[in-house]
Amino acid sequence: MALIEKTGSIKLDYEPIDNDHDEFIMLLNQLDSAGNADFPILFQQLYEHTEQHFDRENQLMKQVAFPAETEHKGEHQRVLGEFKQFKTRVDKGLIAFGRSFVRDRLPQWFQLHVQTMDSALVAYLKIRQQA
What we know:
Number of strands: 0
Order of helices and strands: HHHH
Radius of gyration: 15 Å
CATH superfamily: Hemerythrin-like
Largest sheet: none
Oligomer: single chain
Low-confidence stretches: none
Number of domains: 1
């Protein structure tokens, strides 16, 4: 069973962000089923994808002068900081710590982030496009 399913609550109807979210979900689900030998490599891939995903969102928010840019970027910073802490442990061979982060932390955070911060960003983008 996948940690996160690609459901309507994850789709925001804004292709660049939806594509990033689809890749995040794919990588997260791969990590959940990965063996210990493959886990560090896939964890690194998810980390790099998340950095790039956040960079694209941060640039988009800046371009459109998104009112909640500071709070949204702060959340990105916080999650990347957490990610780095767990990546350090995974890099030392402490795979169980990484698995805990992947299973117990990331799915819940991601779903909440999409339904709150990212959905607000997309709503703002759609209003701006209509103006």
